[in-house]
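We treat protein structure as text, and this decision shapes the records that our systems exchange. Such a record has a labelled line for the sequence and another for the backbone structure tokens. The record that follows is passed on verbatim for readers who wish to inspect the format:
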Amino acid sequence: MNTLRQSAREYLAMRRSLGFKLQRPAAQLFDFITFMERYRASYITVPLALAWAKQPADAQPATWAQRLSYVRIFARYRSATDPRTQVPPPDLLPYRPKRARPYLYSNREIRDLLRAALRLQHHSLQPWTFYCLLGLLSVSGMRVGEAQNLRLQDLDLKAGVLTVRNAKFGKDRLVPLHASTCRVLSRYLARRQRAFVNGAPSDYLFVSARGNRLDGKCLRRIFYRLSHQVGLRAPCDRHGPRLHDLRHRFASHTLLRWYRSGVDPEHRLPVLSAYLGHAHWSDTYWYLSAFPELMREAMARLERRWEQHP
């Protein structure tokens, strides 16, 4: 019979072959295996899984629950080859994470952010980099990391399509672009070429002053600065609208337009789900409850149906 460590390697290889990246879960799982080896335990038990999960003792309950979930999923896999395995029950260390309340930017706030980006005092290309990146996020619904990872070959201006590669669960997808977005990106590419006459060090679409891939911390630092400048955050605010909220805005306004145009959003929801790169429709349905205007539209449609079919 395989050892726990060997079984963990096979388990991770199997899940990664299905598209899961599992960087943090893998590190945590091998930490659990080391913990089990210290106790000379050859199979998983609930008491040992719980003792490991509740480390460190001063961590948040959410951290404990997440750590135990890594063991639980692995234990289910392991139980197929080792019947001694005890699978931690789902109600042990229960925790349901709360989604951050999305901020739904107005058109004026988007315009203010874009104007502020053009006023950045950096390398000559940087104002246009942040202008195009923020604009693309607002009109495409892409994840921030997906936009950071775009390379020059992923942009087809003639076809008006972006290719998002190796996104969540290792999937690729095509993102169609409006002609106006293509024109802005075309002008950005021309400026990018002039800024790096001898060629940028990397082939990423959105680059830093040195021509490298935009660093996530730098991107968020600039975004927070712009947010303060346009009044989205007070001078001392540590929390406020996020870059990811641009994705929420895109999804919510797309659903709202469908409701108001009279089409059936339920039939079109799979299209939006695929466009956003969601793994489950439920992730897209969530926008219905997160956006008050969408809830009002849904209730109004339901009331009209009741009137027509009492």
In short: The longest strand covers residues 161-164. Strands lie at 155-156, 161-164, 173-176. The longest helix spans residues 61-78. The domain at 107-229 is CATH 1.10.443.10 (hpI Integrase; Chain A).
